[in-house]
Structure formats: C-alpha cells, structure tokens
Amino acid sequence: xxxxxxxxxxxxxxxxxxxxxxxxxxxxxxxxxxxxxxxxxxxxxxxxxxxxxxxxxxxxxxxxxxxxxxxxxxxxxxxxxxxxxxxxxxxxxxxxxxxxxxxxxxxxxxxxxxxxxxxxxxxxxxxxxxxxxxxxxxxxxxxxxxxxxxxxxxxxxxxxxxxxxxxxxxxxxxxxxxxxxxxxxxxxxxxxxxxxxxxxxxxxxxxxxxxxxxxxxxxxxxxxxxxxxxxxxxxxxx
Length: 238
Description:
238 residues, alpha+beta, six-stranded antiparallel beta sheet, 16 strands
C-alpha cells in the first residue's frame, strides 16, 4: 500500500534580493499549499480505464490545474515510448477529474505540475498516480511532490510562436516534445538555475521562459520543502 503525504501548508520567507543599487529588499512571508491531495491521487487511479498491461508502463503527464480544480493542457508521454493506449487512458482520466487546487496566502491559484500514472501488470492491471515526474525518485523515493509552477502563461503556445494563444486559455494541440525547460527550484520556490535541453529553432523564445517563469511552490518531501528540479516539456504540434 502506497501512502503519499502530499498536503502541506508551508510558510516561506521570500522576496529577499538585491536591487540594482545593491540594497537588500525586505523579506515577506508567503503561505502556500500545493495542488493535489491523497484523495485526488486515489480518484485519478480509480478513473483510469487500464488497458491490458504485460510490462510496467510509466506515463508522465504535464497539466495545468486551474483555481477551480479543473485540468487543462493535459499532455502525456509513456516509458517505454509508444504505449498510446496507456497515454490516452491517463489523458482521459486527468481531463475528467476535478483536483484540489493550489493556494497562495489562502487564495486558490493556477499551477502547472507533473503527474505520473503507473500501470503495474497482473491479473488485473493496477494503477497508481503520484504527484511527481519520477525523475528524482532515486533521491526522494516515491513519497515526494514535484515543484509546481505558478502563473497563467501557457508556454507550450509560446514555443509554437503564438503569444496571442498563450493567454487565451485555448489548447495549442501540442503532441511532441520540442525541448525541455529544466528549472532548479530552491526550498523557497525561487529559481536558482535554468537550463534548456533539446533546443529547437524557436529556442530564442526560451530566454523569455527563463526570465519570466520564476515563481514556484517548492517541491515537498515528508511535508517539508526541499530543493528540487522541475522539468517542463514544451511541445510542438503533430
């Protein structure tokens, strides 16, 4: 039986920085609660209509959770690659459920976050949902929550050269990874480093991403914030 302690209300000391004149700005406290709780994970797993599974399949999804708890921009890839039935099963489930939204200072906010759906073979395929991308399981085990990106910009639209769509609330119908944004997020939710992988012709736009995407709810392990990487795929059209 897996147990994930993913609900945590954190008070972060943030806003500490040097101005252009070299003066320290005052710190202020921010209380944050990440999206997705244990009941949400159970509901996702129960909602998935699992196809026949002979070997373990890990489906990594990236989605936006609105302040209403609805999901948008659900995109998934499988490991091993090409498990389309499993990808579609995860996508359908994530589009159907309503999840617990994130909060900042008691106000519900929109976040982008990874969610993994794992299919375990057996007489009846077992499904487990976890609030992370699995990339840091070796360090943190299964019991961790990935950082969650705050904000209302759909960078997948920007990666296709459409700034108008980026704030329109419309899906850009993206299906293939164009490149990966790799953020190093500290325990206060601040970006300490930003890297770009699989750079595409539109990589000039990636500078905008690094410059503007700097607000996160930090990753959580056992109810405590921890420095963690946040990897977000930017997708191209099919």
